[in-house]
Amino acid sequence: MSVTEARVPARQVAALALPALGVLAAEPLYVLVDTAVVGHLGALPLAGLALGGVVLTQIAAQMTFLSYGTTARASRLHGAGRRQDAVEEGVQATWLALAAGLVVLVLGQLFAGPICRVLAGGGEVADAAVSWLRIALFGAPFILVTMAGNGWMRGVQDTRKPLRYVLVGNALSAVLCPILVHPVGWGLEGSAVANVVAQVLSAGLFFRALFAEHVPLKPRPALMREQLGMGRDLVLRGLAFQACFISAASVAARTSIEAVGAHQVVLQLWTFLALVLDSLAIAAQSLVGAALGASQRERAKSLAWQVTGYGLVFGIGLGVVFAALAGVLPKVFTTDAGVLAEIPHAWWFFVALQPIAGVVFALDGVLLGAGDAAFMRTATLLSAALGFLPLIWASLAFGWGLTGIWTGLAAFMVLRMIAVVWRTRSGQWAVVGAIRT
């Protein structure tokens, strides 16, 4: 196969990436709206949302195999011409999502208080976080069902329906949030209720899509065990992220209420742009998996570098835009003078990291689409242990504040970039077949 034949038309990448962008951006965009609404209640509710939101997000992050692992497996089967088998991966992932979601809900109610008090060191911030988290946890099973639904639908290269499903839920929630927080007077808890409404509605639409496929819905323990095999590596990878971002929130909370509020604003913008950049990775996951499933190794390798180029250009553009917005955008989220004074300590790291993030997230998508989960696990664990975590806790010990926390994030991203570029160049990830062995 020639280089020209191996290249994937840009319009094919865009046809998957643009709807995926909407799906990926919808949740953090809702959280940004939530942050702006709660931010006008004052620094304490904003800090409570920051801490509670990090806990819930990191719980969900442990289950990323429901989306990424399902896409990797379903896309290979789809590329091999086995669509029904690809959809059945989604059925089993949905059963796993329901089971895991119920466990998260029960354990979360039991341990929400102790977890938040440990992270915040007790006090008002911990109390505010617990009041938000106990309500938001009722959405956990539905968050996981939505992740599984996105996983199998991306695998069969349908990213348009998931976009509609997620937008419907989050649009309703975005309307409810300011109403429940302010006129109804529920305050911080009102934002949690609106969040649950969004998750229930979106998950219901994914259930309907699965029923419409007319595939067997019976649980298949053997297939679920196979999914959990890849899930183990992705869970360990997720633990590295969890340790890093919960540590960052904890150190910020122990610095000052203003610092944790500022960290929440910049971190939510970071999360939003990370998922914007990750839209290319979603396209790469689907296309790389399909190419490897169809035994088109050179096409998969060519696509990897195409997506890397797109990610780099995209990241540079985002960095320029948010550098220009430095004096304006933070004021949308809060009017608290103390929080606004802290934001610049994180803002310029956030801006400078966008090109690096563009490369890292694109190649993450390539390697995850290939099912190279074991390498991704090891690379992320080492990057966290050598980069992010030492600098975060040094920030607490030496009083470096947000500057130290975001220096840790920068080190983490640079180490990850080195790892994924090296792995992609090696070609060892490009294993062909309907199922990676």
Task: Kindly summarize this structure in a few lines.
With 437 residues, this protein is mainly alpha-helical. It is built from 18 helices and no strands.
Low-confidence stretches: none
* Count of all domains: 1
User: What's the helix count?
Assistant: 18
- Molecular shape: globular
Protein structure class:
mainly alpha
The counted number of beta strands is 0
Strand content: under 5%
Order of helices and strands: HHHHHHHHHHHHHHHHHH
How far is the first residue's CA from the last residue's CA? 24 Å
Mean pLDDT: 86
Backbone CA Rg:
21 Å
Q: Main beta sheet, described?
A: none
**What is the helix content?**
over 70%
Question: What does the model show?
Answer:
By secondary structure, this protein is mainly α. The protein has helices at residues 3-6, 10-39, 43-61, 68-79, 83-120, 124-136, 140-155, 160-181, 188-212, 221-255, 257-293, 297-324, 330-333, 337-342, 344-352, 354-369, 373-398, 401-426. The two termini are 24 Å apart. The model has no long low-confidence stretch (mean pLDDT 86).
Topology record:
Blueprint: H1 3-6, H2 10-39, H3 43-61, H4 68-79, H5 83-120, H6 124-136, H7 140-155, H8 160-181, H9 188-212, H10 221-255, H11 257-293, H12 297-324, H13 330-333, H14 337-342, H15 344-352, H16 354-369, H17 373-398, H18 401-426
Helix pairs in contact: 2-8, 2-11, 3-5, 3-6, 3-10, 3-11, 4-5, 4-7, 4-11, 5-6, 5-7, 5-10, 6-9, 7-9, 8-9, 10-11, 10-17, 10-18, 11-12, 11-16, 12-15, 12-16, 15-18, 16-18, 17-18
